[in-house]
Amino acid sequence: MDISDILSPQTVFQRVKTPSKKKLITEIAGFAAGFSGLDADKVFDALWQREKLASTGVGHGIAIPHARMAKLEKTIGLFVHLDEAIDFEAIDSAPVDLVFTLLTPADAGADHLKALARISRLMRNASMCEKLRAANDRSALYALLTEPTAGVHAA
User: Fold this and answer.
1) Best label site of 1, 3, 16, 62, fewest CB within 10 Å?
2) Is residue 152 part of a domain?
């Protein structure tokens, strides 16, 4: 699976301003609803239920919220670069500014885990994260995220 299989230029957002984790999840749900045809409240509920199990803030300023969704036909990725980092209850307590959200069909099975692993490898690459933080527009973010070698060499 390539990131370009799940992410589109329209699902990359930059300089998003939000005061909290819950507000961010609400905004992400709204973005996702616009691209998937799903109900924003249902997307929020699925993502928030997952967050209640344990934060998807994986450390180093990165979060990977994810959920399986009924009525979703294909996997969707959304990337958000926040204008200012927020508390996401991450495992290292560091505030989060890079958020890659994954929504998969309810019956995705192992494909859900494979997509999560691919995103995790990409976002663990310290050099990649530096480039993402320095990118000055959505098209630059999308180009970085979808490079064929993106995240191949985790740092």
Assistant:
1) 1
2) no
